[in-house]
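task queued by scheduler; priority normal; single chain, no ligands, no partner chains; default sampling; output format set to structure tokens
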Amino acid sequence: MGHRHDHGHEHIHEGAGSDASPALDMSIPDSELSPSDVSRRGFLRRAGLLGAGAAASVLATPAVANAAGLTHSHGPQGGGNDKGEFQWLAGDHHIHTQHSDDGQYRVVDQAKHAHAYGFDWIVITDHGSNAHAKIGVDIVNPDIRKTRDQIKDLLTFQGLEWNIPAAEHATVIVHPGQHEVDVLKKFEQTYDGSQQPATNTVAQNEAQALAGLKFLASQVKARKVDDALFFANHPARKGLDSPHELRSWRDTAPDIAVGMEGAPGHQAGGIPAPFGKGGNRGSYDNSPAADSFQPYPLESYRTWGGFDWMTSTVGGLWDSLLAEGKSWWITANSDSHVVYLDQSDRGPNSDFEKNGRYNDPVYTGKTLTTAADFWPGQYSRTNVGAKSFSYKSVMDGLRAGRVWVDHGRLIKSLDVQVREAGDRRSSSGTPLGGVLLVKRGTSVELTIEIGLQDMPNWAQNLPVLNRVDVIRGSITGPVKDKDSFSAPTAKVVKSYEVSQKSGTFKVTYALGRLDTPFYVRLRGTDGNRTQPGLNGAAIDPFGPKLDATGGSDPWGDLWFYANPIFILPR
């Protein structure tokens, strides 16, 4: 049964020499606080940053941020080396194989291409029909294990693409181990949308989705698997993922449900005919339906510069979550099923319903100009700051939000940090996904270092970074309307034109004296296609342009986005 949506219904890194304010430690009763700390706690409560309403906020207390895996010390325990640096591992968490009812390739085919295109990690996320729910998780596992043995310097996760009850799709990732198959299989058979009774109400399906997330959390707690993660896939594609559902997923399992695809796969779909499919980037070719969230604007059903509307709109849905202090991160990936310009087809005489897979692909000599996908690593990258080359470190980095994403290899590297103004110690900065906690009135600054691209991408273009935008928004606490998707204070506060063509672009931006909580995030572009954002030029004067059906060559419109850093006065 579909679902109708109607409107209405830390990392904590403290300043040098500072200690966490007692006002933030809810284990200390008000009666034992100093008058200034009582006043401070009252302010935080009124702002919604303390108490039950902030349970899933990275700003609730340092203990909450620590439990969420966000506490960062510049040493091995914190996820970096003694200089606070990370290994940046590129990967893709949304890849299909012959074990999906709409897939084609072997696991090793996808892995070999990902490895050749420079990836460090991938997640195999097959999904589909009752056949997959019955046997798909079992029969793909030997192929994944074999690939792990064959390509040892590629971390190959097993996951699945979850048909979320009452919503769209999501990546579910589990840490490799003895019970990875058992956990994924039980999860899919019990909580996949395809397995729910057709008589379920919207409320029942939404509750089942939350039960599925609780199940994953329980399996981690019971040590059935070492870790599990969830990312909402192509969240605005059909208008099914309502704001209250995103909030509920995050609040129900904040260690599991940590983000969404900032940019969907299927990016080749916009290549103009006759050389390409002539459709839409991301296969975002839908219109509102009966089970869509009706208040979403029509523009949300298309991508903007290849990115999902939820991410690309300054002051939009992503910013509304960040304004609550929610650690909600973005990624990018291929969603690779059938690849543009490939020359193969599914194996003949396949019986997917019986076997849970298609036969191995065969060479045809016919070029697939109407396919919408790229190989993993060919176009989209999710770059994760990890403390080591390991499955756990990649998952820890994803959960902590140490992530930046790009299309078409727009840039080589990115280092973004917030620190107390003038503090140039390499160990003093707070990285992507972190929370900087400093004394009220302290001046803070943003440091940006971007390695400019010096090699052609896979379309034989040398990407040139044209502009970098700094976006800032106030943290105002939990919203009363769980279906809110606006953040009125978020705006582009600074843009840098990049004139140099090589080397490292470095800049420091003064964020001013810290009086109220806020966050800051970054994006950049080649500048080929821009327009004022949906909320007006005063908010976003040169944002991504709405992608036109049949006229959006992905290689000619490149962007990068970085996850936010939160800044909190104590």
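post-processing summary
- Residues 87-382 form a domain with the TIM Barrel fold (CATH 3.20.20.140).
- The radius of gyration is 23 Å.
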